[in-house]
Write a structure and sequence with these properties.
The chain has 161 residues and is α+β, with helices and mostly antiparallel strands. The protein has one domain: Gcn5-related N-acetyltransferase (GNAT) (Aminopeptidase, 3-Layer(aba) Sandwich), CATH 3.40.630. The protein is built from 4 helices and 5 strands, in the order βααβββαβα. It has a 5-stranded mixed β-sheet with strand order 1-2-3-4-5, sandwiched between helices. Strand 4, helix 3 and strand 5 form a beta-alpha-beta unit. Helix 1 packs across helix 2. The termini are far apart.
């Protein structure tokens, strides 16, 4: 297994992994708010890649026998013009996607991808790394907690009507 920086020839593999993740999220979404829109496959990877390119980000791929089996995307967190009023706004990285194909999980690929992204963020002088995790994705929460990440905020939800 090796980790490489994203190359355009792997775009379809990135799309496949994003769809695989979204299908998994749909299967565990107890609120039934997520969806896999008909344009998701075509557009989401391009949107993500454009955002990371615009915000000092990287996309790394995990290859096993020249097959993409995982990816991580991250970028420097941006603050709006008023965030400084109640927040110190440290230079921080943000992991926007971490996906390991179902067939390759529990083999250390996620850890290798995390280490690569954390190294990148350290090299560009980020003080913190943020990651949003879907509340119902208990496996991902446990994975991040094992990497010494902790919750700082929670989003609470209530259906009305």
């Amino acid at each position: 297994m090796k980790i490489i920086e994203y190359e355009e020839k792997y775009l379809e593999d990135v799309r496949n992994l994003l769809v695989e993740l979204e299908e998994y999220i749909l299967s565990i979404d107890e609120d039934n708010l997520d969806q896999l829109h008909s344009e998701y496959r075509e557009k989401m990877a391009l949107i993500d890649l454009k955002e990371i390119n615009k915000n000092e980000g990287k996309c790394y791929l995990a290859l096993d026998n020249n097959q993409v089996v995982g990816l991580i995307m991250g970028m420097v967190r941006k603050y709006d013009e008023y965030d400084y009023l109640d927040y110190k706004c440290p230079r921080a990285g943000e992991i926007t996607e971490l996906i390991v194909s179902k067939k390759a999980r529990t083999s250390g690929i996620g850890t290798s991808l995390m280490e690569k992204m954390e190294e990148y963020f350290k090299n560009i002088k980020c003080e913190y790394i943020f990651v949003d995790v879907f509340e119902y994705n208990k496996n991902a929460i446990k994975f991040y907690q094992n990497k010494k990440y902790h919750s700082r905020m929670e989003i609470m939800l209530k259906k009305v009507g």
